[in-house]
């Protein structure tokens, strides 16, 4: 356009296109671009976890509801969750974007020598805020940003953390049905403007429980997995009935997978080390060992080469890539069973046919991940992501500034249907054609401005054409205007 102005002679049509086309660029269609963070119509996000839903369960039996989300949205084949692959550490990583050593929920069973407190998911110790406050979960950040959140049983969501509960939440009660939990979620998202939640979490205990009891290889697991798909179908239908399905971004994932155990694969610690020398803190397959005072070297030497199916780490030798070292709640000695093996003190304790917690690079430890909604691309399969990347992704979808975290939006932005360009994300490439978002007013505003500019251009164009006639009309125009002006002044 600049060259036309310099050289002259461009057609009116060219001017029109040059003015209007920029209004339809990807930036205009980005729903974050012109968002007012104080009075915004906030994007909606529901994060669902089916505990212990391994990545490949969706291929094992017909799962039409998972499939429909994949077809309408995205799927990630490899999700590397965090070490250790247990329920509490991974659920807290999903909502903080932090590895366990940083968020502090390092296991389902913990001991904190600084606090001299023990934590167990089986006791009321889970309600002690001090266990959770090394990190800030997403619902707290949403609320501090002026948004609202609702949690149906997500681990930690019924604990006061940094002075806040979720805006709406259900105290943990395993006997509350999935359908009831869904109904609460629907009610919270459907509330009138100003009361509706923006970010919801929904947790269900299966298929973890059955996976432990039956073992993932059991044919009986087929019906359990099909049942989870039906539950997902129930959620989808309820969202549709409430008019929320096209509005709410839905992420369905899990904390970990599950692997088959065998009573033939048991490591009995009593064979190698006297119980009087240590305290057993966390359970198999990654066992935290707290040696009695002055017994660290002795216990380590007794265990380090004790069994070829058990890796023994001193705390300072835990591999860096586990991100599982720098926290007082990680015990001085860590025992890690090889996949399928169980560490017990002896065979008298309860034995399970399935378990998780092993090395997070093992395929069987990894969870499912599918998502759909206005923020996500359609029918797109991504090869891999880390579960810590979920947090910056969710912050981006919710248009809030993430706290420092171990994840990266860059790693997962190809899942999005729009180009991340907010001030608190890294502006980078987008291979995705931008898509008009349902809750974006940008196209309407852009079209209106476009029409105004076109009309403005026409006025300017007419004036320019008129001025071209000026040498001919020069005297007449002044003569015509002067009396009118004078006449006006005398009125
Ligand atoms: Zn479990």
From TrEMBL:
Keywords: Membrane, Transmembrane, Transmembrane helix. Pfam families: Phosphodiest. The chain crosses the membrane at residues 441-467. InterPro entries: Alkaline_phosphatase_core_sf, Phosphodiest/P_Trfase. PANTHER family: ECTONUCLEOTIDE PYROPHOSPHATASE/PHOSPHODIESTERASE, ECTONUCLEOTIDE PYROPHOSPHATASE_PHOSPHODIESTERASE FAMILY MEMBER 5. This is Ectonucleotide pyrophosphatase/phosphodiesterase 5.
């Amino acid at each position: 356009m600049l060259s036309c102005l310099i050289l002259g002679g461009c057609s009116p049509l060219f001017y029109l296109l040059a003015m209007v086309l920029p209004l339809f660029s990807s930036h205009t269609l980005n729903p974050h671009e012109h968002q007012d963070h104080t009075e915004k119509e906030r994007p909606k996000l529901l994060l669902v976890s089916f505990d212990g839903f391994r990545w490949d369960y969706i291929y094992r039996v017909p799962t039409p509801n998972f499939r429909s989300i994949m077809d309408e949205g995205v799927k990630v084949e490899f999700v590397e969750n965090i070490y250790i692959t247990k329920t509490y550490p991974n659920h807290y990583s999903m909502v903080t974007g932090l590895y366990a050593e940083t968020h502090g929920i390092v296991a389902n069973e913990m001991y904190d020598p600084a606090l001299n407190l023990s934590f167990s998911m089986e006791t009321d110790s889970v309600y002690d805020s001090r266990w959770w406050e090394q990190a800030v979960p997403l619902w707290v950040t949403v609320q501090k940003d002026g948004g609202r959140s609702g949690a149906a049983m997500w681990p930690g969501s019924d604990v006061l953390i940094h002075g806040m509960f979720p805006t709406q939440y259900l105290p943990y009660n395993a006997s509350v049905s999935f359908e009831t939990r869904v109904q609460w979620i629907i009610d919270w998202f459907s509330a009138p403007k100003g009361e509706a939640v923006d970010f919801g979490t929904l947790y269900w205990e299966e298929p973890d429980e059955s996976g432990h009891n039956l073992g993932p290889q059991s044919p009986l697991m087929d019906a359990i997995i099909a049942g989870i798909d039906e539950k997902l179908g129930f959620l989808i239908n309820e969202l549709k009935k409430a008019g929320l399905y096209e509005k709410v971004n839905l992420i369905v994932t899990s904390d970990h997978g599950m692997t088959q155990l065998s009573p033939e694969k048991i490591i009995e610690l009593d064979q190698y080390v006297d119980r009087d020398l240590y305290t057993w803190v966390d359970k198999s397959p990654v066992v935290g060992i707290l040696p009695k005072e002055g017994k660290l070297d002795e216990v380590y030497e007794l265990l380090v080469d004790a069994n070829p199916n058990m890796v023994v780490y001193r705390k300072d030798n835990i591999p860096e890539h586990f991100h599982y070292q720098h926290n007082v709640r990680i015990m001085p000695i860590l025992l890690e069973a090889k996949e399928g093996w169980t560490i017990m003190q002896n065979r008298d304790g309860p034995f399970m046919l399935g378990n998780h917690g092993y090395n997070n690079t093992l395929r069987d430890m990894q969870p499912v991940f599918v998502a759909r909604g206005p923020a996500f691309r359609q029918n797109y399969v991504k090869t891999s992501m880390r579960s810590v990347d979920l947090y910056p992704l969710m912050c981006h979808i919710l248009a809030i500034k993430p706290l420092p975290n171990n994840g990266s939006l860059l790693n997962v932005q190809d899942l999005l249907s729009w180009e991340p360009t907010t001030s608190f994300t890294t502006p980078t490439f987008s291979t995705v054609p931008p898509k008009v978002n349902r809750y974006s007013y940008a196209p309407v505003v852009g079209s209106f401005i476009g029409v105004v500019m076109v009309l403005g251009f026409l006025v300017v164009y007419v004036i320019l054409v008129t001025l071209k006639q000026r040498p001919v009309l020069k005297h007449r125009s002044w003569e015509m205007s002067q009396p009118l002006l004078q006449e006006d002044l005398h009125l």
